[in-house]
Design goal:
By secondary structure, this protein is of the alpha/beta class. The protein has helices at 14-26, 36-56, 69-80, 95-106, 124-130, 153-162, 182-185, 234-249, 251-271, 298-307, 327-331, 336-339, 353-368; strands spanning 2-3, 63-66, 86-90, 110-114, 136-139, 166-170, 189-193, 204-208, 276-279, 288-293, 310-311, 342-346. The mean pLDDT is 96. Bound molecules: pyridoxal-5'-phosphate. Pyridoxal-5'-phosphate (PLP) binds at residues 68-70, 73, 94, 96, 141, 145, 170, 172-173, 193, 204, 316-318.
Length: 370
């Protein structure tokens, strides 16, 4: 099998798994209990928080553990909008953001949607024009999950702060893959999800800048300084810290490796004379290859590659029941002739050159033998 859907999820890091086992089978205490067995877990929790903070340039007190990227996004949008009069987001956000915004619209909040250009980039001047005297929560993703485009986050933050707004970024596709320094960027909130960077599924975090009075999304006990209740998932938190630190140490090498694999795939497809468009901007997440083939069907390509034991995606994984053209492909205006033939190959650090060649050759085979 060739797994080339790393934007959907990644393989658990082996060292992270070993750590998990330790905290599931041996040190399985509750970090809130005062006896030594519990305190051992509390110490592990503190260390994991410090590691994660260091990886994104935050202070440890600014990291709040959640159950996934979706929860982090819901918290940021639903509680962040309590602090503001309106929400501004982009049309190409993940549904964790779009549907949270929709819920806020249902209870009377104003939500405005920023357009993107044909490469998926949000323009800081469009944002500037959209912001008025109302206090605004702006949420624009760090990198798009379908086309990989990296947004000009620093510029968008500056525009937002000039108009006294609050800025959140959904960095689920970016954390562990590209350098991020939250203090340098100036973001007020940032969402991340473990399973996108070789940590287990069901764990994530929200960065909340010191001083931002964000109310809890989940009420209950005193965990996470009373801001996110629920007994901490120590095994997954410790594993997440381990996987993130490893990815951050290997980031430069991973990027070089992935850019090489991207080139292999694109060069083979081009040399075969196939008619396709590569979507996204030149500044994209390493390993993302979003392609629209002329007069083809993404669904058909996915299933034909599946028969060849190759896993790719047509759009975002959360949308796999929906066979329509994705909202992202629609927003960037891919011409009709190509739009339906869109697939996403998302390579990961474990993929090899020979796998990249096999993916490209399998695509050529499927497209030329329809
Ligand atoms: N945001 C983005 C950009 C994503 O790509 C995803 C998952 O695909 C999510 C949020 C949701 O993350 P999770 O699967 O951890 O809930």
């Amino acid at each position: 099998m060739i797994y080339a859907d790393n934007a959907a999820t990644t393989k658990l890091d082996a060292d992270a798994f070993e750590l998990m086992k330790e905290y599931l089978l041996n040190d399985y205490g509750n970090a809130s209990q005062p006896y030594e067995f519990g305190q051992k877990c509390k110490t592990a929790l503190r260390a994991a928080r410090e590691t994660i903070a260091k990886c994104i340039g935050a202070d440890p007190e600014e990291i709040y553990f959640t159950s996934c990227g979706t929860e982090s996004d819901n918290w940021a949008i639903k509680m962040g909008s309590n602090l503001t009069d309106q929400i501004v987001t982009s049309v190409i956000e993940h549904h964790a953001i779009l549907n949270s915004c929709k819920s806020m619209e249902d209870v009377g909040k104003t939500v405005k949607y920023l357009p993107v250009d044909s490469t998926g980039v949000v323009s800081p001047s469009d944002l500037d024009r959209m912001l008025d005297d109302s206090k605004t929560l702006v949420s624009v993703m760090f990198a798009n999950n379908e086309i990989g485009t990296i947004e000009p986050v620093k510029k968008l933050v500056d525009v937002t702060h000039n108009k006294r707004g609050i800025f959140h970024t959904d960095a689920v596709q970016a954390v562990g893959h590209v350098p991020i320094d939250v203090h340098e960027l100036g973001v007020d909130m940032l969402s991340a999800s473990g399973h996108k960077f070789n940590a287990p599924k069901g764990i994530g975090f929200l960065y909340i800048k010191k001083g931002l009075e964000l109310r809890p999304f989940i009420d209950g006990g005193a965990q996470e300084k009373g801001r996110r209740a629920g007994t901490e998932n120590i095994a997954s938190i410790v594993a997440m810290a381990c996987a993130l630190e490893k990815n951050c140490v290997q980031m430069g090498d991973n990027e070089k490796h992935l850019r090489n694999l991207e080139n292999i795939v694109i060069t083979i497809l081009q040399n075969a004379g196939l008619d396709f468009i590569r979507n996204g901007s030149g500044c994209r997440i390493p390993g993302n290859i979003n392609l629209s083939f002329a007069d083809a069907e993404g669904e058909m390509l996915l299933h034909r590659l599946d028969l060849k034991k190759i896993c790719i995606s047509t759009g975002s994984a959360c949308d796999s029941v929906n066979t329509q053209i994705s909202h992202v492909i629609d927003a960037i205006g891919v011409p009709d002739k190509y739009a339906e033939g869109t697939i996403r190959i998302s390579l990961g650090k474990n993929n090899t050159e020979s796998e990249a060649e096999r993916i490209a050759n399998a695509l050529i085979d499927v497209l030329t033998n329809r």
